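Subgroup meeting minutes
Present: P.N., E.W., G.H.
Scribe: E.W.

1. P.N. recapped why we're keeping a running log of single-chain structure predictions: easier to compare across weeks, and new members can see raw inputs and outputs side by side.
2. G.H. added today's entry (230 aa).
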Amino acid sequence: MTKCYSSASTEAGFSLIELLVAMGITLVILGLVSSMLASSFTIRARENRRSQAIADAQRALNLMSREIANAGVGLNTNGIVAGDSALTSIRIRSNLNAFALAGSTDAIADDEHEDIKYRLIDDANGKYLVRQNIQPSLSTAVFANPVDDLKIRYFNQKVAWTTAIMNSCDITLPTGAAEEANKTLVKYVVISVCVNLPAAGTQGVAGYQPPSRTQLVSDVVLRNTGLFSY
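Output recorded in log:
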């Protein structure tokens, strides 16, 4: 007599519906992770561009401030060339080797770095700040790129300015304060530089960065304006 035995299997698996649900959840999670990665890359790239642009503009502003502060060394003027200085440009002169070793006969500012001009260029390549050596022959070097706006204000005394509306890239003066029209009398200069960054990404999509504008301001006292008699 033959006996047959059977036992119920303890192994089990996903049903088709369970498998589809699990795959759907996995795809949703992968989509969220991909979106977060893409948005983080967009933000990081934007912040890198912002840091580079601001650092470039800050270096240029620092050097401008130092050279403008030293304008007029060895001269009997404040060093500002009145006919070639305006709202978006300034030309300064200094006789840097006027006080060289004994025997020097240099009495004019005609050497390199003694007659320079800063100006904002706006052409087909964009907006950028340049530094020009006027003497002994004209040479131009890009100083900061991009720089979207430059404003230079001239005063005969220190003023308590504040930053103005960002879009103007300018300063606000207190009541009663005014610029000095005669630039040969200028003793105090305020320089304002603005850097624009375009929008990054797509509006309404994760990681979108709206356009932004950063303003940097430096004020400079012409340290040689009180040395005319020396």
